[in-house]
Amino acid sequence: MTVEVGAMMAMGIAALIAGPMLARPRLSAADGPGKLIVLGPTFEAAALAAFSAEHFTAARDLAPIVPHWLPAPLFWVYFFGVCLLAAAISFVLWRSVRWSAALLALFFLLVVFTVSLPPLPRHLHDHLYWPAFVREIAFASGAMVLPGWPEGA
After folding, report:
1. Residue 100: pLDDT band by 50, 70, 90 thresholds?
2. Residue 66: count of CB within 10 angstroms of its CB
3. Which long-range contacts (CB under 8 A, 24 or more apart) does 84-90 make?
4. Is the pLDDT of residue 153 over 60?
């Protein structure tokens, strides 16, 4: 197992362990399917934590993806790694979720419009390109609906 994979697994598992423990009061107040909905932020946080670890451990591999018109690509990789980790922590602690979710949605939409859409015509028939493209849209969509569950976030 590479350091990158190990770090991603460790960060994701840490979020999956901490999330339900810290959501215990909200879990006990929810009933039926509401319990699963209360755990939604934990599941999103686990993925975000794993992707943040990737930004820290594979920064040099991710730097070429940064749009060429942005200076210091390595800075942006680390910066967005910190942003992903901050959002994951916010979702696990259930603090400032509205701000974190809004900024996370903006982040993923920026990735779609600056990284994924420009080369789209070259990758129309590339089956490896589309999952990443759809993943960013799905994460942005998830971040947009996240503050609504449970009410009063």
Report:
1. very high
2. 18
3. 84/48, 84/49, 84/51, 84/52, 84/55, 85/11, 85/48, 85/49, 85/52, 87/45, 87/48, 87/143, 88/11, 88/15, 88/44, 88/45, 88/46, 88/48, 88/49, 88/52, 89/45
4. no
Q: What is the dihedral of CA 114, 116, 117, 121, to 10 degrees?
A: 140
Cα 135–141–145 angle (5° rounding)?
145
Mean predicted lDDT score pLDDT of the chain: 89
User: Tens digits of per-residue pLDDT, 112-151?
Assistant: 999 888 888 888 888 878 888 888 899 899 888 887 754 5
Count other Cβ atoms within 10 Å, centred on residue 82: 12
Q: How many residues does the chain have?
A: 153
